[in-house]
Amino acid sequence: MKKAPVIATGAFFVFSGSSLTNVTADRDGPHCRSRAGAARLGTAAAGAAGAVAGALALIMITVFAVRRWFRREPRREGVGGRAVSKMTGWWKNRSSAGKVELYTRWSFHFFAFMEVAGFGLAPLAAAGKPSVLLPLSLCLLVCVHAVLCAVLSSRSLHWVVGRRERPVRLAVVTAVVTAAATLCVLALRATGRLDPSVAPSLVSGLTSFATGSLVLCLRTVRSIRYVAPAASAGTGLAVLALGLPAGEALGYAVGVLLGSLLFSATCGFSAWLLRAVYELDRSRELQARLAVAEERLRFGRDLHDVMGRNLAVIALKSELAVQLARRGRPEAVDQMVEVQRIARESQREVRDVVRGYREADLAVELEGARGVLNAAGMDCLVEFEAARDLPAEVQSALGWVVREATTNILRHGDAHHCLIRLTAPQDGPVTLVVENDGAPAKPVGPPGSGLAGLRERLAAVDGTLLAGPAGAGLFRLRADVPGRHLERMEARA
Asked: Distance between CA 128 and CA 493 in Å, rounded?
């Protein structure tokens, strides 16, 4: 990829040399052509062959770059050991930002085919049988220019998403090659060698597509808005300098201005949209991290509230027991018994904090999950159908299921809709279902310990947990607590 600008520049000068050789031959007259016809024909043929080789080299470099970019996404195995179809896996396994980038990138790659088909074939269509070499050279020139703009667009998009530095040198090479190609076409038009109906389309196509690629390398709108007027003014001045009429110069300037404005707006908006999508993706990931950090702070605060007071009491009573023991008083034994009781109570409270049993409220967890998911841009629906009060142990276990499911939705997949349904009939089992769309077709990384921990918590209340894909891109997590266990706990209470 680093040799693409060099190949493009060399191929362009081969094109320019072959074209100018033809112009010189026409200006020298038929006698001069007859004296040096064979030599010049050989030179032109060599130039055309070199141009074709350069164009093919650039196309191969572009293809290898695209293949390398595709291979950056790691391939993961599907659920149950089945691999996702190669025809759809490369698209389904990407995030929303990755899909937008892929669509934008291939749209700019398609611009190269548009430039070749729309402007590169025009000289060939207008060419006559006696003069085929010059139209062929111009067509190959447009092909090289299209590939160079495609490479610049690809590297600029890498810069837009923050993967590499801005391609300043490649942008300068593209601008110089575009300016030189435009001057070459205008020189052919001024000498009468090029059809007047072909020159405007070539100049407009070269400048417009190059302007779109160069706009991707700019950060601010203030810088972007000067590109199209500068290209238009430069083209108009070049036409006047070559001795063409002022009206024709004005026509070139207006055509270049309109085309450059269109491509500048399109490419500038595409870059802004891609940058905004990646910023939203990073913000979503940061929000998930902040939620985890907030949970850690809550855990630390609860642990401090539980252990701080008890440790202070233990320290005070143990110091009192030491003083009483030194004085030989029997109250020292009572103080140490109290220290032992407080220590055991502290152990129980720490276990409650770790397991989430302390002040557990399932309704609060459901509201918190809805608030977090809605804040993340998802449509979350919570259905709470409880015909009876649930024991604290069951509320805590199901509350942890809601927490873990919310965390998995935020950190894995690309959900837009989520349903949380809790059903607690008067008779029968309690069922909690969490269902979301946008689940990845393949598991993200190795299986974690979250679901295993939920199964352990539910096992304490004789509950079960089922988790897996539900078809149509859905993922379902279902927790059940049997009614007989609830009846035993209610009878015990």
From this structure: 100
Give the other-Cβ count within 10 Å of 309's Cβ.
12
Q: What tens-digit pLDDT sequence spans the chain (493 residues)?
A: 444 444 444 444 444 444 433 433 343 444 334 434 433 444 344 444 444 444 444 455 555 554 554 444 444 444 443 444 455 556 777 778 888 888 888 888 888 888 888 888 888 877 655 567 888 888 899 999 999 999 999 999 999 988 889 999 999 999 999 999 999 999 998 888 888 888 898 999 999 999 999 999 998 888 898 999 999 999 999 999 998 899 999 999 999 999 999 999 999 999 999 889 888 888 878 887 887 787 777 777 777 766 776 787 788 788 888 988 888 888 888 888 888 888 888 888 787 777 654 545 688 788 878 877 776 678 889 988 776 778 888 888 888 888 888 878 877 667 888 999 998 888 888 999 999 987 766 665 555 567 787 888 888 888 999 988 887 778 899 999 887 766 666 666 5
Is residue 139 a contact partner of residue 119, using CB atoms and an 8 Å limit?
A: no
Write b or e for each residue in 83-121: b if 16 or more Cβ atoms lie within 10 A of its Cβ, otherwise e. ebeeeebeeebbbebbebbbebbeebeebbeebbebbbe
Tell whether pTM > 0.85: no
d(CA 430, CA 433): 10
- Nearest CA-CA partner of 87 in 441, 469, 472, 471: 441
Residue 434 and residue 420 in contact, taking contact as beta carbons nearer than 8 Å:
yes
| 377 to 87, 163, 406, 414: CA distances (angstroms) | 30, 26, 13, 11
Task: Let me know: does 47 contact 12? Beta carbons within 8 Å.
Answer: no
- CA dihedral over 81, 87, 92, 94, signed as positive or negative: positive
Question: Minimal CA–CA distance to 115: which of 84, 91, 149?
Answer: 149
Q: What is the DSSP string of 79-92?
A: GGGPPPPHHHHHHH
The residue behind tokens 């020159």 is 199
